Amino acid sequence: MCAMKNTLKSSIIDNLDEEYYQISTDILSSFPKFRPPLDLFILKEETAQILLLKKKGDRMDKDEQERVAELCKEGNIFVARSDHAVYSKHIAKQLDLVLVDENLKEGEIAEIFCYALTDRIEEFMEQPVKAVFTKLYNDLMVLTEYVWEDQNRVKSLVRRLHTGEHSLAKHSFNTGALGLWLFGKVFPGGFNRRVYDKTALALFLHDMGMGKIPAFIRDKEKPLTQDERTKVNMHPLLGSKIALKLGLKFDEMQHCIMEHHERLDGTGYPNKVKEMSPLGSICAVADSYCAMITKRPYAEAMEPLAAAKELGQSTRAYSTKVTKFLLEAVVSERW
């Protein structure tokens, strides 16, 4: 990204979007009315200059608001790309704005989704009630609308998987993003939009039952006691109950919640089944891989290639079809 300049010569006006976002009226209307959250710039076409119009946080009276709104309609209001971090955090609060902002790059949109959805998931895990779920649901539907237009866009999400310290919200985002990518590989084009929506919900919310497990157990560094292990092993059942209470009664949700810890050799939990649904198998691989590549209280993070190889070698526990797609992608860095 180029450094911001006070003026632009006419010869580089065509490359304006490399330094500034031209914001739409939808974006402008999402800002606080009286104090913009970042600097606003105006384009002076006759002199090919970008000039500061209003500084971040400065109060705008009604006349100034009307003037800025009119200039925005004319396409003459910009924000600096150097303010991308501020802009991303703002737009993440109204995620549907990514669908109307034509100046955002694919990678920037993926960053916004990562930030916004992780935040929403964290809120939901702390308070899994209808009102909080509705906000998360709406944001996930923005994601599926965006990705449905071009399912290769999922790769940008997978490139931004959270690493470092494990958290329930980060893990849920990671599993959702990777799971959607794997789903597209296992079923290339063999599903409709409604199935895709339900699959995304199920993958991102597969671990909702863990929110009911006390934090001191989830974050424990020492081996769990038998009683603590029993409680942890109950989290799929707790998640299933939460889903039903929220009206999420479709099969995809139950498959992901109830099967992400099951294994094909019957060594998993909670039901020790040996036959798993295709989506449950996808979720199990995504969940395990995403846990392995982050630092958990009881284990260091593994390198992505080592984690993918270990899962690929566990042929009795995981679907070889799914682990093959994962390993090939990690080896070739296809995403």
Q: Could you describe the 3D structure shown?
A:
- It comes from Desulfovibrio ferrophilus.
- Keywords: Hydrolase.
- It holds the Pfam family HD_5.
- By secondary structure, the chain is mostly helical.
- The chain folds into two domains: 10-84, no CATH class; 118-332, Orthogonal Bundle (Hypothetical protein af1432).
- 37% of the residues are buried.
- α4 (106-126) crosses α7 and α5 packs across α8 (193-204).
- A hairpin with a 4-residue loop joins β2 and β3 (49-54).
- The chain is built from 15 helices and four strands.
- Major sheet: 4 strands, antiparallel
The arrangement of helices and strands along the chain is EHEEHEHHHHHHHHHHHHH
Shape category: elongated
CATH superfamily assignment of the largest domain?
Hypothetical protein af1432
CATH hierarchy class name of the largest domain: Mainly Alpha
Strand content: 5-15%
In angstroms, what separates the terminal alpha carbons?
22 Å
Number of strands: 4
Q: What is the third-level CATH name, the topology of the largest domain?
A: Hypothetical protein af1432
- Briefly note the structural class of the backbone: mainly alpha
**For the residues shown, what is the average pLDDT?**
91
What is the C-alpha radius of gyration, as a whole number of Å?
Answer: 23 Å
Portion of residues in helices? 40-55%
**CATH architecture field of the largest domain:** Orthogonal Bundle
Q: Tell me the count of domains.
A: 2
Strand order of the largest sheet: 1-4-2-3
| Tally of separate helices | 15
Q: What ranges have pLDDT less than 50 throughout 5 or more consecutive residues?
A: 1-17
